[in-house]
Amino acid sequence: MKQSSSHAMLQLTLTSGLGPTLIRRCLEAFGSATQVLEATPQALANVSGISPNKASQFVASWSDQSAINQELELIAEHGVQLLSIEDEGYPKLLKWINDPPPLLYVRGQLSEEDALGLAIVGARKCTRYGREMADRFAAGCSQLGLSIISGGAYGIDTASHQATLRVKGRTIAVIGNGLAKPYPQPNVKLFDEIVASGGAVISELPMATSPRPENFPARNRIISGMSLGTLVIEAANRSGALITARLAAEDHGREVMALPGPVDSAMSAGCHRIIRQGWATLVTSPAEVLENLGDAGQLLQAGGDEMTAESRTESSSLFAANLSESQQKIMSVMDSELAINDIARLTTLPMHVIQSDLTMLEIRGAISRQAGKYAKKR
Predict the structure, then answer these.
(1) Residues 181-201: b if buried by 16+ CB within 10 A, e if exposed
(2) Which of 91, 159, 164, 336 is a plausible cystine mate for 134, CB 3.0–4.6 Å?
(3) The CATH classification of domain 106-301, taken from the options 3.40.50.450, 3.20.10.10, 1.20.190.50, 3.40.50.10260
(4) How confident is the model at residue 378, as a pLDDT?
(5) Nearest to 9, CA basis, from 87, 91, 75
(6) pLDDT of residue 327
(7) CA pair distance 119, 136, nearest whole angstrom
(8) What is the CATH number of domain 323-376?
(9) What pTM was estimated for this model as a whole?
């Protein structure tokens, strides 16, 4: 009997030595997680990076269900759902990054609305100014229709989640440990409140994974990858928040914004530097954040000062009827399933424009992506 997509992906992610890169190559070679598990050692060994010896070890390990059964018990105990990259509900924007997590553990609910997400990141040991600005911008951007995505840590993260909850908005905490080992412990109540509000706490790590420093840079790519843009509020020159911002700007092609702070504040030195170097835009209000989100900002501005779920749907319909010239050009060539290189050849548009437009077209529901190819939704 075939496993479900998420259970098959769970088996792959729990396989020792089979990381996200090899899983992605296997999916490209065989089409689905279920088909990977049905592959012979000889077929697996044809995947780049998998030796015949490793292939035999992988296949042999898949007959032992003890690890997956133990994981499923923890998943059930903590009320967690599994979301495979093959599933319809997997975050659309996250699929576009170079190394999307094959599997997400989700406590709570993700929504299509979360495609209109803003990452807010910053210092754990923030100042009073930082907390006040996180409160102001998270609440304001949430009321303008954005889902607020952050890391569930102390400081700016906590202030952003709390402000969003206060105005009854949507917020998602992406944590760098397993959902059975919530961290930091004092934020367990906050995580419960996020879930109770209709938001989500998510991780790519197995349930019992303890927090370790090396987990957090990888976690940051999910925060950035799920978001249309990243807003940095207070970051020293050496800050994990700047890792998230750089991922957003350089790897994911997303907007990066930063708040200025007092000129003599070490906690704002990183913000000042990325503004000065030109890869972050200075913003001073939630309205300016929307302006910097381009098409998505126009969608939300079309809905007025504050948006309900119903008005978001209405604005989405309005937005879909107003494609940019480059988006119209892309739609005009999509008579069949096309890889991104085919779209570039047929439209002669720059690759960064194509990537941005495909993201927005998928958010609008105009196109779908399957096995690395894109097609109009009929």
Answers:
(1) bbbbeebeebbeebbebebbb
(2) 159
(3) 3.40.50.450
(4) 66
(5) 87
(6) 86
(7) 14
(8) 1.10.10.10
(9) 0.81
